[in-house]
Amino acid sequence: MRSSLFLYSVFAFAYALLLASASASVPPRGGFPPNFVCNNRTRGPDLEKQQQAALADFAHLYVDLQDVQTAFDRWVPGEYIQHNPNAGQGRDAAIAFLTAGFADPQVTSTNKTVFGGQGFGAVHFKLSVNPQTVFAVVDYFRFQGTCIVEHWDVLQQIFGNETNPIAFF
User: Fold this and answer.
1) pLDDT tens for residues 5-53?
2) Fewer CB in a 10 Å sphere around the end CB: N or C, the chain?
3) Three-state SS string across 2-15, please?
4) Would you say 38 and 141 are in contact if contact means Cβ atoms under 8 Å apart?
5) pLDDT digits (tens, 9 = 90+) for 108-144
6) Which region is the signal sequence (predicted)?
C-alpha cells in the first residue's frame, strides 16, 4: 500500500532529487548554473520559453536523476500548492515524501516527455516501483514566473496485458 501511495503521489511533487552535492557533478540543463534559483517575478515575451526550459531541467533532476532536493531548491523555492489527495501540502512535505519513495533502489523512472505552455507544464513518464508494479504518470504544474507553484498528478497502472500495445507511451 505504501508503494502504491508513493506512485500515486510522485507527480504531485513533480518532482526532483536527492542531494545538492550530487547536482554539482550533473551538467547544467538549459544553461542554468548548478546554484540557479527560479524567479517568480520573471516576465516578458520569452517567459513561456523560459518556463519550458525550467520544466525540462526540473524533470531531468526529478525524473532522470531522482534528485528531489536539487529540483525543488532550484524550481520550487517557496509556495507549493498540492492537489494530490494522498500528499501533504507544501514544498517540505513533497521533498520528504518523494525522497523517501526514491530511496528504494527498485524505484525507477523512464520514458520521460516534457511539454508546456501558457504558464503550465506537464511531465509524462513511466514509474516502476518494482518489476510487477508499473505506472504511467503525468505531473501537471502551474508556474509563477519561472517557479513551479502548483501541482496535480494522474497515475495509471500498467498491467502488461493491455489490448493496445502503445496505450501509455
Assistant:
1) 443 343 333 322 222 223 333 344 556 777 889 999 999 999 999 999 9
2) N
3) HHHHHHHHCCCCCC
4) no
5) 999 999 998 899 999 999 999 998 999 999 999 999 9
6) 1-24
Dist. CA 117–CA 49, nearest whole Å: 8
Pairing of strands 81-82, 133-144: unpaired
| DSSP per-residue codes, 75-120 | H--S--EE--TTS-SSHHHHHHHHHHHHTSTT-EEEEEEEEEETTE
- DSSP code for 67: B
Instruction: Tell me which residue has cell 508494479.
Output: 133
Q: How far is CA 114 from CA 45, 77, 94, 137, in A?
A: 21, 21, 20, 12
Nine-digit cell string for 146:
519561472
Burial class (CB in 10 A: 0-12, 13-18, 19+), 39: middle
Q: Hey, how many other C-beta atoms are within 10 angstroms of the C-beta on 17?
A: 27
Q: How far apart are CA 135 and CA 4, in angstroms?
A: 10
Q: Pick the residue with more confidence: 6 or 55?
A: 55
Cα separation values, 73 from 7, 34, 140, Å: 22, 11, 18
Which phi and psi (to 5°) does residue 9 adopt? Answer: -90, -10
